Amino acid sequence: MLNAFSGGDVRAAEAPLIDAGQGDTLMQRAAHGLFGVVLGLLRDAGRGTYGATAVVLAGSGNNGADALYAGERLLRRGVGATAVLTSERVHADALDAFVRAGGTTVRLDGADVSDLAAHAAAADVVIDGILGTGASGGLRGTAADLVRAIDAAAGPRAARSALVVACDLPSGIGVDTGLVQGPVLAADATVTFGAAKPGLLIGDGAVAAGQLHVVDIGLDLAPFPPAARTLLDADAAALLRVPGARDHKYSRGVLGVAAGSIRYPGAAALAVGAALATGVGMVRYLGPPAVAALIHQRNPEAVASTGPVAEARSQAWLVGPGAVDDDDQRTRARDAITSGLPVVVDAGALTEVPERVGPQVILTPHAGELREVLAARGVEAERSAIEAEPAHFALRAAEATGATVLLKGFTTIVAAPSGALFVQADATPWLATAGSGDTLSGIVGALAATLAEDDGAAERIGVDPVDLWAAVAAAGALIHGRAGRRAARRGPVVVSDLPGDIGAVVADLLEERRLAM
Ligand SMILES: NC(=O)C1=CN([C@@H]2O[C@H](COP(=O)(O)OP(=O)(O)OC[C@H]3O[C@@H](n4cnc5c(N)ncnc54)[C@H](OP(=O)(O)O)[C@@H]3O)[C@@H](O)[C@H]2O)[C@@H](O)CC1
Ligand SMILES: [K+]
């Protein structure tokens, strides 16, 4: 599990060490970690250090100091480095060290911004040390102008020649929210100190951060609760249930599915295919015979009927995908949601959620659907606001409903009603295609069915039992994202082909788990 801590908590963890006179040691550890990553990136890009050029954007605070000390180390390895001082103030010792190592400096104030931007765009590496955890709001003033100009001069990240490495975080992102309010220099890599910060995992902040490196600088974060967590492969693998010799189809977990309608039969077929590929004892399908017939073309093993939820014994339910204009499906959704069993609630069923439910009810809206879930509970928010601050609004929805809320997007946010937050960035933009969400709900449903009677699951991955369903949803997002990336190696993702990839990802995760034991 990758734990992210709020900027405030990281600073609180630093405080006793700084009081004990170790501030400089922390800074040198941070700078050394940053230097090491830059060195590795230069090597990977085949550029080496001698003759390479670096531009260090150094702000007024300790973030600028970290960047300058990393620049000092690069200078001693033969890199030609220029520091652009973005504020009147600068850390005197760090600047002194940088200059003594042979670095040149330019004050942004009074300089020609487009000249500086052109110089930065032509460098081998740009280190962004304008703002760190001391930032408030987006970049302002001339620093904002500089970043805008560098961005324009260097071009989009994929086409740039200069590598951009963010010091602690891309300057201008919300440390705890990932909210991007002004210009931000999208980084190829971010080297963050002490622990990941939530803003590096969430939404636009995660996009700007690029590849994340966490450098241990010796902070003790144990007393602080993580502000966000990301499941790693080993965590998802620990939630996969491998059948034993005494298992049978019922003991492995049965997933009831009330999805699809005459108008949208495909969603049910996609969800069922994904659930079977994730691994369940059985899928019981409830819905129109015409939809069952479509499901059976690909998955004849699904057991179908037209009866009510009460007559289809299951360990978990999946309701909603493609269930539109169908009163029977609406009734089944309501019955499943109030059954007390874990239930994944998607699309058309989101409007059937009563005032208050428990965390075993897993809502899987996209931003537009979340807007409606919130509006139904008196919370008005624009879709764009939800997309800009997905974690904030997912937590609001979890709090308002009592449900676990998985918010789909570039990063998948899972909020538990306890306030726990999981963020997964496993997906590929190729998964942004019709039917993708149906397969995600099928995966989460299958995991829920197999874990519904597994009392040790929360402990196995080190989460509080009340947050188990959030972790299960996050594991579903991980498997879905990895399956999408695997599928994208063949070309644009065709969602109906995804079950093959889901099965392969499950096999890979289980193999990694076996090797780790
Ligand atoms: N503590 C430690 O020992 C360690 C800390 N570490 C490092 O320190 C970093 C935190 O350093 P920090 O606290 O000095 O804050 P930091 O982010 O550099 O700058 C804040 C200054 O920027 C300004 N400013 C604010 N908002 C702005 C805006 N929107 N737009 C423009 N300017 C803005 C504002 O200055 P002002 O404008 O008020 O003059 C404010 O004072 C942390 O990220 C990590 O890298 C590591 O070395 C490990 C040890
Ligand atoms: K920075």
From TrEMBL:
Residues 232-509 form the YjeF C-terminal domain. It comes from the Bacteria. Keywords: ATP-binding, Isomerase, Lyase, Metal-binding, Multifunctional enzyme, NAD, NADP, Nucleotide-binding, Potassium. The keyword NADP applies. Its cofactor is Mg(2+); K(+). Pfam families: Carb_kinase, YjeF_N. The keyword Nucleotide-binding applies. Its EC number is 4.2.1.136, 5.1.99.6. (6S)-NADPHX binds at residues 62-66, 132-138, 168, 267, 322, 366, 438. InterPro entries: Carbohydrate_kinase_pred_CS, CARKD, Nnr, Ribokinase-like, YjeF_N_dom, YjeF_N_dom_sf. It catalyses: (6S)-NADPHX + ADP = AMP + phosphate + NADPH + H(+); (6R)-NADPHX = (6S)-NADPHX; (6R)-NADHX = (6S)-NADHX; (6S)-NADHX + ADP = AMP + phosphate + NADH + H(+). Binds 1 potassium ion per subunit. Homotetramer. Catalyzes the epimerization of the S- and R-forms of NAD(P)HX, a damaged form of NAD(P)H that is a result of enzymatic or heat-dependent hydration. This is a prerequisite for the S-specific NAD(P)H-hydrate dehydratase to allow the repair of both epimers of NAD(P)HX. This is Bifunctional NAD(P)H-hydrate repair enzyme. It comes from Arthrobacter agilis.
